[in-house]
Write a structure and sequence with these properties.
Family: Belongs to the quinolinate synthase family. Type 1 subfamily.
Number of helices: 15
Subcellular location: Cytoplasm
Strand order of the largest sheet: 2-1-3-4
Enzyme class: transferase
Bound molecules: 1,3-dihydroxyacetonephosphate, iron/sulfur cluster
Number of strands: 12
GO molecular function: 4 iron, 4 sulfur cluster binding; metal ion binding; quinolinate synthetase A activity
Cofactor: [4Fe-4S] cluster
């Protein structure tokens, strides 16, 4: 604990010295979330991270999250320096949707409006008409559906089919999934709910359909934290990465939060309920990054400007829609 607090103090000092701003996701180490909040950065969902990074005047942003979040920041602000504690922090959705295969899929269906989830590479975003995050995907597809558009959706099949069911839109789905959320189990969740009949169930829409079906609230990380605060209940079962519990407990003190069941227990199923790539962000690699950033570009995000110029259109459409 003592070492942690001295690392945190050092990070605060370095952020100030280097005039860098820390942007953290709710799934990263609790200390990195607290640091972002305490130093004038932000801790939030993917949509807010993108907006915050774009609008902040700092020349350097440190993104504690996964690679697509750093890339989105770079695409929106090519003039800023975007650094990440570990550039190998990827996402199974991004890995499962290679740009060349995705392009061929789009080319085979030229009559469809291409909507991609934020959890994709810059090259995939460059091929898309729209990029969406979990907080606004439903509204954007509903809007496109009302205009009579047919949709090609990638890569998360669970989020895609959830949106399809809700909106009735004609959606052709890429078959990707998140290795964390894919592990939540509907039958076990029902049994847990029977033990806690008063509990409300909060679910991230990357979860399988039989888990989403049991939800009281389905939403992005920010949306389900808000639900934990605002719903009049004392107990919640939470189906998303357990990194979120830190903020939920802080935002709704006195309430009880239970992790939704996964295939194995945490001893046998290491990636269950915690994203291994989000976990690559820590206090030590953040200190190292800040100490070396003037002499090294090892941790810097680069996006091919030609790709960035295309990808910015699909991201900006979402941000304009959200505004
Ligand atoms: P949010 O946009 O809801 O924060 O989700 C990002 C993510 O990677 C979920 O697994
Ligand atoms: Fe990707 Fe899933 Fe990790 Fe989110 S939790 S970054 S969707 S692998």
């Amino acid at each position: 604990a003592e070492q942690r607090s001295s690392l945190k103090a050092r990070i605060k000092q370095l952020l100030k010295e280097k005039q860098a701003v820390l942007v953290s996701h709710y799934y990263v180490d609790a200390d990195l979330q607290d640091l972002a909040e305490e130093t004038g950065g932000c801790v939030s969902d993917s949509l807010e991270m993108a907006r915050f990074g774009r609008d902040h005047s700092a020349k350097t942003l440190i993104v504690a999250g996964v690679r697509f979040m750093g890339e989105t920041a770079k695409i929106l602000s090519p003039e800023k320096r975007i650094l990440m504690p570990d550039l190998d922090a990827t996402c199974s959705l991004d890995l499962g949707c290679p740009a060349d295969e995705f392009t061929a899929f789009c080319d085979a269906h030229p009559d469809r409006t291409v909507v991609v989830y934020a959890n994709t590479s810059a090259a995939v975003k460059a091929r898309a008409d729209w990029m969406v995050t979990s907080s606004i995907g439903l509204d954007i597809v509903a809007h496109l559906h009302a205009q009579g558009k047919k949709i090609l959706w990638a890569p998360d099949k669970h989020l895609g089919s959830y949106i399809q069911k809700k909106t009735g839109a004609d959606m052709l789905l890429w078959q990707g999934s998140c290795l964390v959320h894919d592990e939540f189990k509907g039958v076990e969740l029902e049994l847990l709910k029977a033990q806690y009949p008063e509990a409300k169930i909060l679910v991230h829409p990357e979860s399988p359909a039989n888990v989403v079906a049991l939800a009281d609230v389905v939403g992005s990380t920010t949306q389900i934290i808000d639900a934990a605060v605002n719903l009049p209940a004392d107990t919640f079962i939470v189906a998303t990465d357990n990194g979120i519990l830190h903020k939920m407990r802080a935002a709704a003190p006195g309430k009880r939060f239970i992790e939704a069941p996964t295939a194995g227990n945490s001893a046998t199923c290491k990636s269950c309920a915690h994203c291994p790539w989000m976990a690559m962000n820590g206090l030590q690699n953040l200190v190292d990054l800040l100490e070396n950033m003037d002499n090294s570009s090892a941790n810097e995000i680069h996006v091919d400007p030609a790709i960035g110029q295309k990808a910015v259109t699909s991201i900006t459409r979402m941000l304009d829609f959200a505004a």
